[in-house]
Recover the amino acids of this structure.
């Protein structure tokens, strides 16, 4: 197995840098990555301490640093050590600069400014947490998105992911023995999306869940015939009400959320509104 020390240096929180590294590393198999994460690098004194660690653990250096003096010293020392250094955002920044005819603002963490969009995203997260699992149905009209689905269709994690993108999201479990409140069928503002999955896959997920909780793995909750009836009941409800459905069987949370956001934007385009991305508070480094 190949072994690589990966040094990630950022003058801000480093969120984007970590995401870039994660996306790139996903393209390679059989590699042992030893990650060294260095956020908030804003002084040469701090950089000197990091460079000592880099010298002791040579590998690939990826950075997002806008201060010219600090990044020049980093690149110079990496050349001295014979190590590659990659400015992760330079290509995109240069392209934008050329197209817009502007110099980029050399301000670390500029996207984390506490503007209105930031506070809107915080509000979306608070709303979503307060409206999980059918709670607070009286306020669903204030939601951007309402997710519906049987148990273990990733409603909560998908809701939280959407909230972090700025969408106020509520979710409701669909249980044949306990129909949802009537208000769900009268909502006008939110986009209602049904999350569906295959019965056999759902049984497997539920059984693993019961085992992790040390509960009996053989109940109606994991009975395949009962689960088929449950999923069919949910599908009929979604179809009868004209709600779009997302099959989460082979989708990650991120993929499901992306599909939901596309539906949300399509709905607004059809209504003649501008396309939005939640509160427009998406934060990248």
């Amino acid at each position: 197995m190949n072994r690589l020390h990966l040094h990630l240096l950022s003058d801000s929180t480093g969120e984007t840098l970590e995401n870039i590294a994660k996306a790139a590393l996903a393209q390679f198999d059989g590699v042992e990555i030893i990650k060294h994460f260095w956020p908030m690098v804003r002084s040469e004194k701090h950089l000197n301490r990091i460079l000592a660690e880099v010298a002791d653990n040579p590998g690939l250096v990826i950075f997002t640093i806008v201060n010219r003096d600090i990044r020049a010293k980093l690149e110079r020392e990496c050349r001295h050590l014979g190590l590659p250094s990659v400015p992760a955002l330079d290509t995109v920044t240069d392209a934008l600069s050329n197209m817009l005819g502007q110099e980029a603002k050399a301000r670390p963490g500029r996207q984390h400014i506490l503007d209105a969009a930031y506070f809107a995203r915080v509000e979306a997260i608070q709303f979503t947490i307060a409206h999980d699992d059918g709670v607070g149905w009286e306020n669903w009209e204030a939601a951007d998105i309402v997710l519906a689905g049987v148990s273990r269709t990733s409603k909560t994690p998908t809701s939280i992911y959407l909230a972090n993108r700025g969408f106020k999201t509520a979710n409701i479990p669909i249980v044949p023995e306990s129909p949802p409140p009537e208000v769900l069928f009268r909502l006008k503002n939110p986009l209602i999306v049904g999350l569906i999955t295959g019965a056999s896959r759902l049984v497997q997920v539920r059984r693993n869940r019961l085992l992790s909780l040390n509960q009996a793995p053989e109940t109606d909750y994991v009975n395949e015939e009962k689960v088929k009836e449950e999923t069919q009941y949910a599908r009929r409800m979604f179809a009868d009400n004209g709600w779009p459905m997302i099959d989460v069987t082979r989708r990650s949370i991120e993929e499901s959320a992306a599909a939901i956001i596309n539906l949300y934007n399509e709905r607004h385009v059809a209504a003649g509104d501008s396309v939005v991305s939640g509160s427009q508070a998406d934060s990248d480094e």
Q: What stands out?
A: Confidence is low (pLDDT under 50) at residues 277-285. The two ends are 31 Å apart (CA to CA). The first helix runs from residue 15 to 25. Strands lie at 2-10, 31-38, 60-64, 85-87, 145-149, 169-173, 191-196, 245-247.
